[in-house]
Amino acid sequence: QVKKQCDQKLLIRMKTKCVPCSLNLGTQCPAGYTKITNGTGTPDCRYYLEIKTYTLSFPGCRHHCVKEFEQPECCQGHWGPDCMGK
User: Fold this and answer.
1) Which residue from 2, 9, 54, 61 could staple onto 24, CB 3.0 to 4.6 Å apart?
2) Is the pTM value of this prediction over 0.90?
3) 13 vs 3, 4, 22, 42, CA distance in Å?
4) Are 58 and 49 in contact (CB under 8 A)?
């Protein structure tokens, strides 16, 4: 039995919106994503506050999230919707 379907596993990474670190504790990743940072997240971003005519920039935190996605693919030498071609 020759294997015809060789699905590729892809890891999709994303980061949540940058917010004040003290408010980031309860931030959740979007549906289907797994949070890979703990606590207040990673302090690697800046968020902005607009006050009248000024825009102030502050250091903030965000969470890193990942999602595993399986992309259907045929093994080498096979093709088509059912991977039967040779």
Assistant:
1) 61
2) no
3) 30, 29, 23, 14
4) yes
Residue 31 is given by DSSP the state T
Three-state SS at 8: strand
Burial 49-58 (b: 16+ CB within 10 A, else e): eeeeeeeeee
End-to-end Cα distance, the chain: 14
- The number of beta carbons lying within 10 Å of the beta carbon of residue 60 is 22
Nearest to 42 by CA among 66, 17, 10: 17
Cα–Cα distance for residue pair 80/45, rounded to 1 Å: 45
User: What six digits make up the tokens of 49?
Assistant: 């506050």
Reported as a single tens digit per residue, the pLDDT across 43-82 is 999 999 999 999 999 999 999 999 998 988 999 888 888 8
- Using CA atoms, how far apart are residues 83 and 14, in angstroms rounded to an integer? 32
